[in-house]
Amino acid sequence: MTDWVIEATGLTKVYRMGTQEVHALRGANACIQRGEVVSIMGPSGSGKSTLMNILGCLDRPTDGEYILDGEVVSHLSSDQLAGIRNRKVGFVFQSFNLLPRATALSNVELPMRYAGVGKGRTQYAREALKSVGLEERMNHRPPELSGGQQQRVAIARALVNDPAIIMADEPTGNLDSKSGREIMELLLNLNRERGTTVIVVTHDPAIAAQTRRVIRLYDGLVVEEPA
């Protein structure tokens, strides 16, 4: 029996803008096995961002079913989605999304604060930062770190609650080529060493070529191709 961490079938998403309806997804299907590294690609307007938002529990589909790590989440309330998102999804964004006045350690502790973790929180954050090679930068604030180091903090923050998936949205987009390669290698190493499922949203074919499989979107529909 296949161990799916993501099972999305017949996803539709309709946005209403005044009297007009915009069909961002038109019955998209996507299944991802636990431990896979998958990229999502598609031209502007293909529904890529909409699919990412639904898979990351940032939004709900208009219709269709989405099962994340064994839980049906497609029809949950916003508050319920927020709880699932904090427990099961780790996000890595292009713009890092770190609190500039907080230390790297404090930034990594944030998801645990939201989850109500008390005992051991600082130690877990330290271990996450050590796993991304930042044990010497724990007390530095984001403006004191390079772009690549900030993205490592963001990856540590994504890991700290041991999520079912890490969703990386253009994780190398704001980095130079060397830092970008290092960040992709870090994500791939986390997958190899910890079995973490990684989903990378990217426009870069060179990034997509490093993943096991490419999920391509065209006009709100999914076409899967081997990477």
Q: Estimate percent helicity.
A: 25-40%
Contiguous helical run count: 7
What composes the largest sheet? 6 strands, mixed
Which structural class do you get from the secondary structure elements? alpha/beta
Mean of the pLDDT scores? 92
The radius of gyration over CA amounts to: 17 Å
Residue windows where pLDDT falls under 50 for at least 5 positions: none
| Number of E strands | 10
Could you tell me how far the N terminus lies from the C terminus, measured between alpha carbons in angstroms?
A: 23 Å
The secondary-structure element order is EEEHEEHEHHHEHEHEE
Strand order of the largest sheet: 6-7-8-3-9-10
Shape: globular
- Binned strand content: 25-35%
Quick tags:
227 residues; alpha/beta; 6-stranded mixed β-sheet; 4-stranded antiparallel β-sheet; globular
Structure description:
- The longest helix has 18 residues, at 177-194.
- Strand 4 (63-68) and strand 5 form a beta hairpin.
- Helix content is 33%, strand content 30%.
- It starts with a strand and ends with a strand.
- Strands 6-7-8-3-9-10 form a 6-stranded mixed sheet, with helices on both faces.
- The chain has helices at residues 48-55, 78-88, 104-114, 121-131, 147-159, 177-194, 205-208, and strands spanning 4-17, 20-33, 37-41, 63-68, 71-72, 89-93, 165-169, 197-201, 213-218, 221-226.
- The mean pLDDT is 92.
- By secondary structure, the protein is of the alpha/beta class.
